[in-house]
Every structure is written in structure tokens, then in C-alpha cells.
């Protein structure tokens, strides 16, 4: 079988992206890996960390060999400024965006089979004047996808989000019957297609404390979430909820479900990160391409220190390889 080609972007160059790439790629993977980065960034960070890395520029992606620990193939993308480890520099924000643009475009064109993204710093990207709220939204726009869903997974828990990077004050109005229906349909379809779950059981969180306490603590459950779930249940979907989010995340419920749908970022992700930070994967569902990512951010405080854990990147690469192999079997 031909091994899939996985493109790994560098993430924020001042953060731990380069560190975790260098340390994770000391391992061998059953895929062909190419890093989209400035080679001088990787070489400088390798020296800072005392990591031996044979960095090669790849001319022809089709000739990329199986990844063997310690050798890194790079498709070069140039930085604007030399990076000071741990210090954001807005001049390098276009470089970060270019790595994502090249990865997404070449994945759509079939040059790459999947993309894995180390963390970017949303704030410094926004300082260029573009509104960048996350890779999820970036790749949705690039691929012109109608509905995407952010889902993070550990070996025993999957948490998907009904809304992604929204200020809390905007969350309630973003929970609509149409939006929620689209999210649940996309989630259900991807759990079937990508996770071989023929009839996934999805637990759905309420939005308000105690799922609205019969309307006394908010009416979104009564007016929006329950009618949406009822309509989708009538189509045969296995949906439980809306359940109060504070007690849904307990073994009694979690032991009998395939995925939790949280209404917003900080309702679902703290639980998942408490359970599996450092070893979880972030997957964008609903895209025509495969994109996985790490469960953590840029950790500027750890860049160049040797203390950044590459566990989540390793999981993200292995998920991308498995998903790419499965999609080749299907097509
Ligand atoms: N996939 C992505 O691109 C993501 C990007 N971010 C961005 O990262 C930036 C910083 O976000 P924070 O909330 O501070 O989260 P963070 O994950 O960067 O840091 C939170 C804490 O976890 C530690 N940490 C993070 N990754 C680690 C690793 N691999 N090994 C050991 N310790 C680790 C950090 O030192 C810090 O104490 C923000 O701009 C945020 O938007 C955050 C999450 C995901
Ligand atoms: N907390 C997850 C996160 O912010 C990553 O988002 P994205 O960049 O994958 O859209």
C-alpha cells in the first residue's frame, strides 16, 4: 500500500510548534511526512534544543520516502524575520497563514493526503488585520465547506462543539434550530464515515445551568434544543438530551455514548483536557480534506526549553495517517 503523505505546518514559529515537530519526528511513522516551514527555523530550534535532525528540502513531493525517525523533509516557506524563541512577531504572521494556505490548497489538489497543524497564536494573526479565529474556521473558508464541527478526542472520550471560537456573549444567539441541526447532521455523518460507528449515540449538553431548569434558568433548551433533537430523533438519530452539562460528564452517561456535543468551547473542552491533556487530538469534521491538530496552544513559555510534550502531535499524526488510509480504502 502507498503510504499517505501528511503535511505538517510549523505553527506559530516563536511557540512550541517547532519543538514538538523536532521531537515527535525523532520517531518513525507509517506515513510520508513533509513539514511546511522555514528550514532555518527548524535548524535553529534543533540546535537550541540539542536535537539532532537531518533536515532535507524536498523538491518532488511524490518522491517523499516513509518517515524514519530523525530525518525531516521540508517544503520551504520563508519567514519574514528571524525568530526569537518565545517572542511573538507580527511580521511573521503572514508566514503562518501561508503555511496553512499552502497545506490546504495542496491537500484539496490531492498532493497531500492530510494536514496536521501544530498550534498557532490567534491573537498575533489577528493583529495583521485578518480575522483569524481558528484553523477550523480557516479551513472551512478555504474549502468552502458549509458545515464543519470541531471535535477533540482521547481514547475514551469524544467531545464535539456546537459553536467554536465565539465570545461567550454571542453563544446563546448562535444556538439556532437550523445551526444545531446542521452541526448534528455533520457530526453524525462523520462519526459513521470516519469512525465506523453505524448508529452513533450522541449526548447533547444543555446551554444553561441545569439545562434551563424547566425554563426558569433560560429557555434555549425548551425553544431550540429539545425541538431540534426531537426532529432528528424522528429521523432515527440516537440523541440523548439536552442534559445538564455539569452531570453529563460522569461515567454513568459517558460509558454509554460515542460522543458528547457541548454547546460551546469552554463547556466541553476543559473536561476533555482534564481527562487527556497532552494525548488528545483535535479533528475538523465536515471538511473535504483531513485535518488533525494538537490539543494545546503555543505555550510560548516553554518554547526552546525542552519541556514541551509532543504526545498530542504524535497522536494527531497517527490519526491523520489512519484517516488517510481509511479514506483511500473507501474511495
Ligand atoms: N490548535 C491551535 O492552534 C491552538 C492554539 N491555541 C492558541 O495558543 C495560544 C496560547 O493559549 P493558552 O490558552 O495559553 O494555552 P496553551 O496550551 O498554549 O498553554 C496552557 C498551559 O499548558 C502548557 N502546555 C501547553 N502545551 C504543552 C505541551 N505540549 N507540553 C507541556 N505543557 C504544555 C503551557 O505551558 C501552559 O502552562 C493562544 O493564542 C491560543 O489561541 C490554543 C489551543 C489550540
Ligand atoms: N481549543 C481548541 C482550539 O482553539 C483550536 O482551534 P483550531 O485552531 O483547531 O480551530
Automatic annotation (TrEMBL):
<feature type="binding site">
    <location>
        <position position="165"/>
    </location>
    <ligand>
        <name>a divalent metal cation</name>
    </ligand>
</feature>
<keyword id="KW-0479">Metal-binding</keyword>
<feature type="binding site">
    <location>
        <position position="291"/>
    </location>
    <ligand>
        <name>substrate</name>
    </ligand>
</feature>
<keyword id="KW-0560">Oxidoreductase</keyword>
<feature type="binding site">
    <location>
        <position position="273"/>
    </location>
    <ligand>
        <name>substrate</name>
    </ligand>
</feature>
<feature type="binding site">
    <location>
        <position position="136"/>
    </location>
    <ligand>
        <name>substrate</name>
    </ligand>
</feature>
<dbReference type="InterPro" id="IPR037510">
    <property type="entry name" value="PdxA"/>
</dbReference>
<keyword id="KW-0520">NAD</keyword>
<comment type="similarity">
    <text>Belongs to the PdxA family.</text>
</comment>
<comment type="subunit">
    <text>Homodimer.</text>
</comment>
<protein>
    <recommendedName>
        <fullName>4-hydroxythreonine-4-phosphate dehydrogenase</fullName>
        <ecNumber>1.1.1.262</ecNumber>
    </recommendedName>
</protein>
<comment type="pathway">
    <text>Cofactor biosynthesis; pyridoxine 5'-phosphate biosynthesis; pyridoxine 5'-phosphate from D-erythrose 4-phosphate: step 4/5.</text>
</comment>
<dbReference type="GO" id="GO:0050570">
    <property type="term" value="F:4-hydroxythreonine-4-phosphate dehydrogenase activity"/>
</dbReference>
<keyword id="KW-0963">Cytoplasm</keyword>
<feature type="binding site">
    <location>
        <position position="210"/>
    </location>
    <ligand>
        <name>a divalent metal cation</name>
    </ligand>
</feature>
<keyword id="KW-0460">Magnesium</keyword>
<dbReference type="Pfam" id="PF04166">
    <property type="entry name" value="PdxA"/>
</dbReference>
<keyword id="KW-0664">Pyridoxine biosynthesis</keyword>
<keyword id="KW-0170">Cobalt</keyword>
<feature type="binding site">
    <location>
        <position position="135"/>
    </location>
    <ligand>
        <name>substrate</name>
    </ligand>
</feature>
<feature type="binding site">
    <location>
        <position position="265"/>
    </location>
    <ligand>
        <name>a divalent metal cation</name>
    </ligand>
</feature>
<keyword id="KW-0862">Zinc</keyword>
<dbReference type="InterPro" id="IPR005255">
    <property type="entry name" value="PdxA_fam"/>
</dbReference>
<keyword id="KW-0521">NADP</keyword>
<comment type="function">
    <text>Catalyzes the NAD(P)-dependent oxidation of 4-(phosphooxy)-L-threonine (HTP) into 2-amino-3-oxo-4-(phosphooxy)butyric acid which spontaneously decarboxylates to form 3-amino-2-oxopropyl phosphate (AHAP).</text>
</comment>
<feature type="binding site">
    <location>
        <position position="282"/>
    </location>
    <ligand>
        <name>substrate</name>
    </ligand>
</feature>
Amino acid at each position: 500500500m502507498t503510504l499517505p503523505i501528511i503535511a505538517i505546518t510549523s505553527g506559530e514559529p516563536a511557540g512550541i510548534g517547532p519543538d514538538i515537530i523536532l521531537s515527535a519526528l525523532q520517531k518513525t511513522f507509517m506515513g510520508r511526512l513533509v513539514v511546511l516551514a522555514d528550514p532555518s527555523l527548524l535548524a535553529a530550534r534543533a540546535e537550541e534544543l540539542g536535537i539532532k535532525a537531518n533536515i532535507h528540502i524536498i523538491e518532488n513531493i511524490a518522491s517523499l520516502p516513509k518517515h524514519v525517525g530523525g530525518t525531516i523533509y521540508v517544503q520551504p516557506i520563508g519567514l519574514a524575520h528571524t525568530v526569537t524563541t518565545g517572542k511573538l512577531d507580527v511580521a511573521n504572521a503572514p508566514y503562518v497563514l501561508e503555511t496553512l494556505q499552502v497545506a490546504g490548497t495542496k491537500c484539496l489538489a490531492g498532493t497531500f493526503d492530510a494536514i496536521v497543524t501544530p498550534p498557532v497564536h490567534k491573537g498575533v494573526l489577528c493583529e495583521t488585520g485578518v480575522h483569524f479565529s481558528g484553523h477550523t474556521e480557516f479551513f472551512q473558508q478555504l474549502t468552502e465547506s458549509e458545515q464543519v464541527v470541531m471535535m477533540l478526542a482521547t481514547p475514551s472520550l469524544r467531545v464535539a462543539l456546537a459553536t467554536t471560537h465565539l465570545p461567550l456573549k454571542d453563544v446563546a444567539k448562535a444556538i439556532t434550530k437550523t445551526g444545531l441541526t446542521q452541526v448534528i447532521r455533520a457530526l453524525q455523518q462523520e462519526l459513521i464515515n470516519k469512525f465506523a460507528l453505524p448508529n452513533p449515540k450522541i449526548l447533547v449538553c444543555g446551554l444553561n445551568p441545569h439545562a434551563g431548569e424547566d425554563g426558569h434558568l433560560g429557555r434555549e433548551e425548551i425553544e431550540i434544543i429539545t425541538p431540534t433533537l426531537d426532529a432528528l430523533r424522528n429521523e432515527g438519530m440516537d440523541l440523548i438530551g439536552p442534559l445538564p452539562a455539569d452531570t453529563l460528564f460522569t461515567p454513568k452517561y459517558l460509558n454509554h455514548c460515542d460522543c458528547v456535543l457541548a454547546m460551546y468551547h469552554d463547556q466541553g473542552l476543559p473536561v476533555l483536557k482534564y481527562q487527556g491533556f497532552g494525548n488528545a487530538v483535535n479533528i475538523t469534521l465536515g471538511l473535504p480534506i483531513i485535518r488533525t491538530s494538537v490539543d494545546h496552544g503555543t505555550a510560548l513559555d516553554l518554547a526552546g526549553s525542552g519541556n514541551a510534550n509532543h504526545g498530542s502531535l504524535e497522536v494527531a499524526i497517527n490519526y491523520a495517517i489512519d484517516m488517510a488510509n481509511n479514506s483511500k480504502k473507501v474511495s
